[in-house]
From TrEMBL:
It comes from the Eukaryota. InterPro entries: Ig-like_dom (IPR007110), Ig-like_dom_sf (IPR036179), Ig-like_fold (IPR013783), Ig_sub (IPR003599). This is FCRL2 protein. Residues 33-118 form the Ig-like domain. PROSITE patterns: IG_LIKE. It holds the Pfam family Ig_3.
């Protein structure tokens, strides 16, 4: 079933040369909210070397309608991305922290548990020297 299958249905048939029909019934198909959210990270430990690539993925086991994704960093309301995957090409000083994915189906919003990311070997401005 799809959401656009909602409507009025009836049955008609021919019985001994006579047309017979049922009363119309109304069928309403309700959407399924986003369920079974899971997140994964590459590298799988959630630890990435400074300057390396980090990929976060968000998946939904069930949900109807067009789903929209948004990525957020805990502690900031900033929107980081709007696709099922968030890719940081060069992990940097400010990329460590907790990330969360939100999925919206137009009627409801589901939020993932936060995922911890640690950037290793972050540049220390007090240590002196260059990168």
């Amino acid at each position: 079933l799809h959401l656009n299958h909602s409507g009025h249905y009836s049955c008609r048939g021919l019985v001994r040369s006579f047309m017979s029909g049922s009363a119309a019934v109304t069928v309403t198909v309700h959407g399924v909210p986003p369920l079974g959210m899971s997140m994964s990270v590459q590298p799988p430990t959630g630890q990435v070397a400074f300057g390396d690539r980090l990929v976060l993925s968000c998946r939904v086991a069930a949900g109807t309608g067009p789903l929209s994704f948004s990525w957020h960093w805990e502690g900031s309301g900033a929107l980081l991305g709007t696709s099922p995957c968030l890719e940081l090409h060069h992990a940097g000083d400010n990329d460590s922290g907790q990330y969360r994915c939100r999925v919206n189906d137009g009627d409801s919003v589901a939020k993932s548990d936060p995922l911890n990311v640690t950037v290793l070997g972050e540049w220390d401005p007090h240590a002196g020297g260059d990168l």
